[in-house]
Amino acid sequence: MMAQYLEIKAQYPDALLFYRMGDFFELFFDDAVAAAEALDIALTKRGKHLDQDIPMCGVPVHSAEGYLLTLIRKGFRVAVCEQMESPEEAKKRGSKSVVKRDVVRLVTPGTLTEESLLEARRHNYLAAFVTVRDVSALAWVDISTGEFHVMPLTPVRLGPELARLSPSELIVSEAQETDLAETVSESGASLTALGRAAFDSQGAEKRLCALFGVGSLDAFGAFCRAEVSAMGAIVEYLEITQKGKLPLLRPPVREAETRVMQIDAATRRNLEITHALSGGRAGSLLAAVDRTMTAGGARLLERRLSSPSRVLDVVQARLESVQFATEQALLCRDLRDALRKVPDLDRALSRLGLDRGGPRDLAAIRNGLEQAVHIAGTLPDDLPRVLLQAKQNLSGHDEVLDLLGQALIAEPPLLARDGGFIAAGYDDELDEMRQLRDEGRGVIAKMQSEYQAATGIASLKVKHNNVLGYFVEVTATHADKMHADERFKHRQTTANQVRFTTVELSEMETRILNAGGRAIEIEKWLYDRLKSEILSHAAEVAQAARALAEIDLATALADLARGENWVRPVVDDGRALEVEGGRHPVVEQSLRQQGGAPFIANDCALGDQADIWLLTGPNMAGKSTFLRQNALIALLAQAGSFVPATRAHIGLVSQLFSRVGASDDLARGRSTFMVEMVETAAILNQADDRALVILDEIGRGTATYDGLSIAWATLEHLHEVNGCRALFATHYHELTQLAGKLGRVDNATVSVREHEGEVIFLHEVRKGAADRSYGVQVAKLAGLPDSVVARARVVLDALEKGEREGATKPKALIDDLPLFAAAPAPEPHAPLRSSAIEAQLREIHPDDLSPREALQVLYDLRAKLNDG
């Protein structure tokens, strides 16, 4: 046995080998040591190899999926080695024959299909990147849904595209592995290298044509060699990992960079589109707007937010659907109730195609198509184009529905081997086997009655024991009568009884004993037949799944718009970014959940007289929120959603860039300022005239004059060279002078109010420039000791005085301002004296006052306040 293990393991040196032994998957040697530590399970030993104990651990087969998920998340790959025959079959070859085993699947991050291993509301992409003669391409597939896409792109765009797709695994050629390691690592994907043969374009084309059963790929589009190579590498990898059982893949769809809004990795991170900065989904834009009812709808929403369209006709069509669902509130409610009952058709279909499904996947297809028919009947004929196309794709599944409706019970078991999922009355032989299995005694009793009637012997019995099986028993007095009947064959004579059998009884005995096993065999055969029938209609089922997702998304966005008071944006080819009463969707929702103050809405107007707003104001006043909310409003509009505003006019944005907030990247030796400069450089080098850029506090990580110079030059470059729309927040008030020199720059500020030395944030954005930063007041709010705050005020006054009177020399400033240690400690606060009003309030007992008396007390207090 161990020789067989070592032979199989040698074929998969980079994977943990799950070696099936009965009801367990066993791991040995280094695999066992690594798995025991990763899974926190006991490490034992089994036998010896080269005079050394063999480490071993194991996991039960029935709960293996949970262990697989843990290992995959910790970066392992797992080769699943199954028994290809039963021990009884092995013994026929010899008593010491080892059961045949082979790897049936290589489990990797990008090839998961099991429901328990995947997030239902997120895609799990497997991607491949290749460069052929200076032309590069990226292909990606979700084998759990069948989606297959490809696009040409320059190598510099790989990072942003990986950030958009968030693939679990990326396939590259061995020659590119080292060069791409850092880029792939930043995306969080697992990197897999294949040999050059996997990327050969001629071989790739043959694999793709064979997969889709076509003579040429021309029917799917005009693909360059790099695109064919990338797609072919994915198919090759799937053949390796799935051991020839290829998933149901849809024909490849060619994407183009020019059709979607370009958003780089830093911007996605800063805007928290699908993931919050903390790393989870909570706190992201996606979490705030997701009201979808189905897993397919949720995945579609994430795709739309990750890839907002820049094709005007597509955006308008999506907005029309949401508009219709918003206006039809009752219909929208009924549709959402029906969608709540829709299972995940895509993933059920994929599991069936990979032969990893079960009866519940058959039921999921049935239930999903039933709801599709119901929803199609609910929708009127007068629909926007997207919803009309969806409605048409929901019908035409009568054949599959009739078959599954007749064949399946309402709630099937998980596994086909458990049986019991085929409905009674569907198959005559199965019904007979079930009757024999479940009602064997009744069948035998019926035969006994027939024998009694035929022989006239009322005391005749049909009995059973482990030696004879079923037999007919009569007393010795009736033996002669039984011998005279040729049907009865003598089996045994005892002191008082004589026992017989019949051909009919022997056959019935065999059938009863085998009925349970035969029933399972029939059900398995029927399962395969039903599965084949569904797979023959896979394209139509997948089409219905896409239609349901489209309807789910439209009604979910409509529900969001009604509930949150969002409006339909005007989207066109112009340069406008005009937002009235704009709000940050995530911050507004968070404030409401916390029961805090309402969100203060603000206006933004770019593209008419000014392409750039220079925003000043103190920290904590809401500058970063204002920047982000306008970027998110543009993103939502082009994703096909209504937006959080009272009015919005969005000229199509080609690229979205955000440089808001930064932190050290210690692993790559970058300081906060270095990270800031790298991100700013990427914006200035890439932004075109249709881009939207939001920049916050450029240059703050270095010396004052260095930072001011960089911010100044950056603003000029955005205005003169990039020519884009931008919101530029800064603490450098000197930059406000540029509004008078650069024609398309306007000043704006976040309003605050100062009262008795305290700063009150109004969170209102208005035209104009801030006159100061209020940094000392913010420091006091943060809880700095009073002595520090007081000292800061002294230093600030001296600096401002020096600036008014001319440049202050540092040494003179130090001489004029003694060291902090010399400053006297602040006097302790004197205890506050109780006022006469407070004393009177303490003597009042509200429960003892009548309404008239309470009103009089209030008048008295008011009079004392005025007198004081």
UniProtKB/TrEMBL annotation:
<protein>
    <submittedName>
        <fullName>DNA mismatch repair protein MutS</fullName>
    </submittedName>
</protein>
